[in-house]
Design brief:
2 copies of one chain form a homodimer. With 415 residues, the first copy, chain A, is of the alpha/beta class. Chain A folds into 2 domains: 5-150 and 351-395, 3-Layer(aba) Sandwich (Rossmann fold), CATH 3.40.50; 155-347 and 398-412, Dihydrodipicolinate Reductase, domain 2, CATH 3.30.360.10. The first copy, chain A, has helices at 12-23, 25-28, 38-50, 70-80, 94-104, 126-129, 135-141, 155-167, 194-202, 241-249, 263-275, 293-300, 340-347, 351-368, 385-395; strands at 5-8, 31-35, 60-64, 84-87, 107-110, 145-147, 170-180, 205-209, 212-216, 222-227, 231-237, 254-260, 283-284, 290-291, 314-325, 328-339, 377-379, 400-403, 406-409. In chain A, the strands form 4 sheets. An 8-stranded mixed β-sheet of chain A has the order 10-11-12-7-15-16-18-19. A 7-stranded parallel β-sheet of chain A has the order 3-2-1-4-5-6-17, with helices on both faces. In chain A, strands 8-9 form a two-stranded antiparallel sheet. In chain A, a hairpin with a 3-residue loop joins strand 10 and strand 11 (231-237). In chain A, helix 1 packs across helix 14. Chain A is globular, with a radius of gyration of 20 Å. In chain A, 54% of the residues are buried. The mean pLDDT of chain A is 95. Chain A binds chain B through residues 187-188, 195, 267-268, 271-272, 274-277, 279, 283-287, 289, 291-293, 295-301, and chain B through 187-188, 195, 267-268, 271-272, 274-277, 279, 283-287, 289, 291-293, 295-301. Chains A, B: Keywords: Oxidoreductase. Chains A, B: Residues 5-146 form the Saccharopine dehydrogenase NADP binding domain. Chains A, B: Its EC number is 1.5.1.43. Chains A, B: Pfam families: Sacchrp_dh_C, Sacchrp_dh_NADP.
C-alpha cells in the first residue's frame, strides 16, 4: 500500500492528472504538484478547486522544482512524503526523476519515453537507451516503475495484451491506430507541446516487422482505416514509444503504429520540415543570434492549452490485433472513444490531454491498492489489463472491443 | 560631367553592378565598393579581376562603411572623390546615403524604395513617406538623384514612358508583369534577400485604379498572362515601388503590378505567413529568447547568392500599356528577356540580380556623360528613355516591343 502523490509537470496533461487525482484522493491521499514555474501549479490547483474536484477534504500543494535535478526531486519526495510519482513533465526529465524514486523507494509512473534534447530518434529499441538500463536497479531497490502509462503508449499496450490473452493462441500483428477526429478551429496547431510533437515525426519511422526493425520515412506509408464512431480516416505509419516495448514482449508479431493526419497538417509539416524550421539544431541569424528553429516555431504556434474551450469532436485510439485461435484466423479491434467537449467540461482540458492523463492516475490508484505495486520496472503490457479496464470503465475511459460478432464492452466481447 | 563611382552594398546585385562598372570604367573612372563587411567587397573585386572585367587599367577599392551613418558615407565620398553613388545596399539605408550625397553634391542612384525595418507597407504613395521629402533639398543643392533605377522599379518605368510617348495620345492602363520562368533546383528559395522579398508580400497590395488607391490582399487577384518567350504564366497583383511614382506621373491611368508565382511558392509563403513566421515583430521563445521569426526563416533558407551556378531559364519583365491613338484603342507590350545562365557566365550572378544591377550602371554612365545629370530628384519615367534603351542594347538588356503588328527591337517598333 502506497499513498500520497507527487505530480511532476504543469502542462495540459498535468491538468488532467491533477483533476483525476483530486477526484480520487480518498485512495491516493495527499496530492502535490511541482514544476519549474510554481504559478502554473497554482493555476492547476485553483482549477481543481473551481470545479470542486476534491472527493474529500485533503492536501493539494504546489511546489517549484527543477526536475532535471535528482537531488531536488529527492528532497521534495522526502519533504512531501509522496510515495507515488506521476511524471508528466517534459520527456527530458524522466531519468532524473526516476533516479530520485530509486533513492527514496517511491513508485514511478511516466507517459512518454525519455529523450535527450539534442538527439532525435535514437537507435531502437528506444527504451533500451535509457529506462531499461535502470531495470535492475529498480528490482534491487524494490521500486515500482510503470513506463509509458498514458494512452499511447499505455492503454494501447494493455489493449494488445488483452487481445492476445483473450482471443488468440498466437499473435501475428498488432497495429496501433491513433485518430483525432476533433477540430480546434485554428489554422494550425499541435495538440501538445509542438517541440515534442514535431520531434516524433522528424526522425526515422521504426516498425517491427518479420522479426526485425524496419525503417521508413514519415508519411511514406499511409492507409485508410474504417473505425468505430470516427469512420474512414487516413493514418500514416509513425515512430512511437509502444512499438519499442511491444516488439520485445511480442517479437513474433509485426508491430506498427499509425497516426491520423489530415492533408493540411501534412502540408504544413512538410513545408516546415523541408525548410529546416523543425530542426533542433541551432542556426545563426544574419544578426549573429543563435537560435533553434523548432523553438521559434513553437513560439508562434497556439499554446495547446488554449485549444480546449473550442475543441469539438472525438478521438478513437485502438489496436487492431490479428492472430490465430484453434487454427483459425482471428482479428479484434480493442479501442476507446473520447470526446473533446466532455473532457473540457469535466477537467478543463481537450481530449488528447484527457486520454493521456487519466490512465496514469488509474495506474497510481492500482499501485496505491497494491494491484500494480510490482516492485520492479515494467511496461504496461507486462501487467494484467483487467483491473485497469475495470477501473477506467468507472473513471472515464471505457474500453470496447470490436470483433466479427459485434461491438462490445471489453468484458462482454465475443470473438 | 561626373566621374568615379561608389557602390554601396555587397550582395548579389552589387556583384552585377561591380562587374558592369568595371566593364565601363573608361566612362566611369575610379571604382569603389563599400559595405559593413569589407571581406564581401574584397570577394566581389576579386571576381571582377578573375573575369578580367576591367575595360582599362584603373582603381577598384573596397571599404568598410556603416551606411546607416551619413557622416561615415560623407567621409568616404570625400576620401574617394566619388561623384556618383550607386546604392544597392539594404533598403533601410537609402535616406542616410542620400543625405551624404546632398551634403557632398554627389549624384545618387538607388534601385528600391526606402523602408523602415520596423514597418511593413506604409501609406501610399510610398515615395512620399521618405524620398520625395528631400526633393526640394536636392533641387536646391543641384544634386542629381535617380530613384528606383533597377529593373522593376526602373526599366519598367522607362517602358511606360516610352509606350505612352511613342504610341498613344492618351494612356488608360499600365500593367507591369514580372515573370521569372527560371529554375534554381532547390525545394524553396527566394531570389534575393528573403527578408526583403517576403516583406514585399506580407502587407496590403496597393494599386492605382480609377484615380484612387485600391487595396487588396496578396494572392487575392491573379490572372494568366501569355508572354513572349516564357509563354503562359500565372501572375498575381502585388504591391511594388513603381506603382507609387507612376500613379503620380500618370494619374489618369490604372497602374498595376503583377508578379509571377508558382503554386509551390504560394503554398510555402501561405504556410509561413499564416503561422506568423514572416512577422518582423519579435516573439519570445519558451526559454526567454527574443527573436524575429522572419530573421530565422532567412537563416534557414538558401543564401540567394548560392543559386546562380545552377540557375537555368529566362525572365520576362515588361509593361502592357493600353491607351488610344487618333481615337483608336492601342495596346503595346514593352519588355526584356534575360537568361540566368548567360548572366552567370558574364558576371557570376543569376538573372534576377542581373536585371536589377545593369540598369543603375547605365544610369551612372548617362550621368557621367551629362545626359541624365538632372541636378534634381527624379523617378525614371521623368527621364527620356531613348538614351537608356540605346545604351542597354549594347551593355546587356535589350528592350523589345510587341504590338499588333509584330515583335520588334524598341527602335523598329510599329504600332
Amino acid at each position: 500500500m502506497k499513498r500520497n502523490v507527487l505530480i511532476i509537470g504543469a502542462g495540459g496533461v498535468a491538468q488532467v492528472v491533477a483533476h483525476k487525482c483530486a477526484q480520487n484522493n480518498d485512495v491516493l491521499g495527499d496530492l502535490h504538484i511541482a514544476s519549474r514555474t510554481v504559478s502554473k501549479c497554482d493555476a492547476i490547483i485553483q482549477s481543481v478547486h473551481d470545479k470542486a474536484a476534491m472527493k474529500q477534504d485533503g492536501v493539494f500543494e504546489a511546489h517549484a522544482v527543477d526536475a532535471m535535478d535528482s537531488d531536488a526531486v529527492e528532497a521534495l519526495l522526502k519533504k512531501t512524503g509522496a510515495q507515488i510519482v506521476i511524471n508528466v513533465g517534459s520527456p527530458f526529465v524522466n531519468m532524473t526523476v526516476l533516479e530520485a524514486c530509486i533513492r527514496t523507494g517511491a513508485a514511478y509512473i511516466d507517459t512518454a519515453i525519455h529523450e535527450d534534447p539534442a538527439k532525435i530518434c535514437e537507435t531502437p529499441p528506444w527504451y533500451a537507451n535509457y529506462e531499461w538500463k535502470r531495470r535492475e536497479d529498480c528490482a534491487k531497490a524494490g521500486v515500482t516503475a510503470i513506463l509509458g502509462a498514458g494512452f499511447d503508449p499505455g492503454m494501447v499496450n494493455a489493449f494488445a495484451r488483452f487481445a492476445v490473452d483473450e482471443f488468440m493462441d498466437e499473435v501475428k500483428s498488432i497495429d496501433i491506430v491513433d485518430i483525432n477526429a476533433g477540430s480546434h478551429g485554428k489554422y494550425f496547431s499541435t495538440n501538445f507541446d509542438p517541440e515534442i510533437n514535431f520531434r516524433e515525426f522528424t526522425g526515422t519511422v521504426y516498425s517491427w516487422q518479420e522479426g526485425a526493425w524496419t525503417t521508413n520515412k514519415m508519411f511514406e506509408v499511409g492507409r485508410e482505416w474504417d473505425l468505430p464512431v470516427v469512420g474512414k480516416q487516413k493514418a500514416y505509419m509513425s515512430g512511437h514509444d509502444e512499438v519499442h516495448s511491444l516488439a520485445a514482449n511480442y517479437p513474433q508479431a509485426d508491430i506498427r503504429f499509425w497516426m491520423g493526419f489530415g492533408d493540411h497538417y501534412i502540408n504544413v509539416f512538410t513545408v516546415l520540415q523541408n525548410l529546416g524550421l523543425l530542426s533542433e539544431q541551432p542556426v545563426v541569424t544574419a544578426e549573429g543570434l543563435e537560435v533553434v528553429p523548432l523553438k521559434v516555431v513553437k513560439a508562434v504556434l497556439p499554446d495547446p492549452s488554449t485549444l480546449a474551450p473550442n475543441y469539438t469532436g472525438k478521438t478513437c485510439i485502438g489496436d487492431l490485433v490479428k492472430g490465430t485461435k484453434d487454427g483459425q484466423d482471428v482479428e479484434v479491434f480493442v479501442y476507446n472513444i473520447a470526446d473533446h467537449k466532455d473532457a473540457y467540461n469535466e477537467v478543463g482540458s481537450q481530449g488528447i490531454s484527457y486520454t493521456a492523463g487519466v490512465p496514469p492516475v488509474a495506474m497510481a490508484m492500482l499501485i496505491a491498492d497494491g494491484t500494480y505495486d510490482t516492485a520492479t520496472m515494467v511496461n504496461v503490457e507486462e501487467l494484467d489489463p483487467k483491473p485497469l479496464f475495470s477501473l477506467l470503465d468507472n473513471i472515464g475511459l471505457p474500453t470496447r472491443v470490436k470483433t466479427d460478432n459485434g461491438d462490445f464492452a471489453w468484458d462482454q466481447a465475443k470473438a
